[in-house]
Specification:
Layout: H1 2-38, H2 40-50, E1 52-57, E2 60-65, H3 69-77, H4 81-110, H5 117-130, H6 133-141, H7 143-155, H8 161-172, H9 177-187, H10 189-194, H11 197-207, H12 212-220, H13 225-236, H14 238-253, H15 259-269, H16 274-300
Length: 307
């Protein structure tokens, strides 16, 4: 009898899951159409250029296939690309972890009940606006802001709390390799805050879906706030870690101060070496995709999904 009921209910469950899948595909359909219509052909052309020696003259482009020579030149002959690639990947890992921790911490604070909560949330939403293309370009290319920054550096003293603590640690003989990364993160707190707007919103939306009755039940059972975080909060929003992790990595790769992207752009625009720049772009793309795939697989193993 139980098996018969299970057979009767199973099609309904599959039908609901099928409807959710269809709805999901409908939401991403505009992206799929745009990708197939505008991105597939440039990707194929870019890969073909990466295995060719591209000659640009008055008649147009001439493609002379040369195999993996451009890839070989990127790693063996170019003295900057390998160094930029290593530094970029190291900074990406540190930046991504810093943004994740910062955004989760701020989201938990903003989820608390206090006066002026809406105003404070609006302040932390400002990085989303400031990180938009136009305003970010004004911020980075504004000559007035650049002159003001130079003036502040000239008129300010060399006193720095982080430098003082760093000197003190060195004097005590404590290893500074780890502390150097910590101080680097502290010095970049402005950049981390600017890059955390979307992540804060995603984490905050997840925190608001957690029922308060779960915390009340845990409190009755004698659970501390720290235990509630690891037993309730963290598992319930763990699925959002994967989303924010991938978004943060992709966002970092699009930064204007990315040395690898600047190197690729220099070879493309200034040197007109389309084949070499395409090879470097594909190397960077494959490494980033591999890193996202491996890290996402690891994170997905500890993600808790609930109905």
């Amino acid at each position: 009898m139980a098996k018969a009921k299970e057979k009767i209910r199973r099609p309904k469950y599959e039908g609901l899951q099928k409807k959710k899948a269809v709805a999901g595909y409908l939401f991403i359909l505009p992206f799929i159409i745009g990708f197939l219509g505008f991105m597939v052909k440039p990707l194929i052309q870019s890969f073909y250029m990466s295995i060719c020696k591209v000659v640009v003259d008055s008649t147009g482009f001439t493609f002379n296939p040369n195999g993996i020579q451009n890839y070989y030149n990127a790693f063996r002959l170019d003295i900057e690309f390998s160094r930029f690639l290593t530094e970029s990947l190291s900074n990406m890992v540190i930046n991504t972890i810093s943004v994740m921790v910062f955004s989760l911490f701020v989201a938990i604070l903003l989820n608390q009940k206090f006066k002026g909560r809406a105003f404070v949330r609006a302040i932390f939403f400002l990085p989303v606006i400031l990180s938009s293309g136009v305003i970010l370009g004004v911020e980075t290319n504004n000559a007035l802001l650049g002159d003001m920054a130079d003036m502040i550096k000239e008129n300010s003293t060399d006193f720095s709390i982080t430098d003082t603590v760093k000197v003190l640690i060195q004097t005590l003989g404590i290893g500074t390799r780890i502390f150097d990364k910590v101080f680097e993160i502290v010095d970049k707190v402005y950049d981390i805050a600017i890059a955390s707007g979307i992540q804060i919103i995603i984490f905050l939306s997840g925190l608001q879906t957690i029922s308060s009755s779960m915390y009340e039940a845990a409190s009755i059972e004698g659970c501390t706030a720290w235990e509630s975080f690891w037993k309730i909060t963290f598992p319930m929003i763990s699925s959002l870690f994967l989303v924010n992790w991938i978004y943060t990595i992709v966002d970092f790769c699009m930064h204007t101060d990315n040395q690898v992207m600047n190197k690729i752009q220099t070879e493309l625009v200034k040197n007109l070496d389309y084949g070499f720049s395409s090879a470097m772009a594909w190397i960077y793309f494959i490494i980033i995709i591999a890193f996202i795939g491996i890290s996402s697989f690891i994170i997905s193993k500890v993600v808790y999904y609930y109905d």
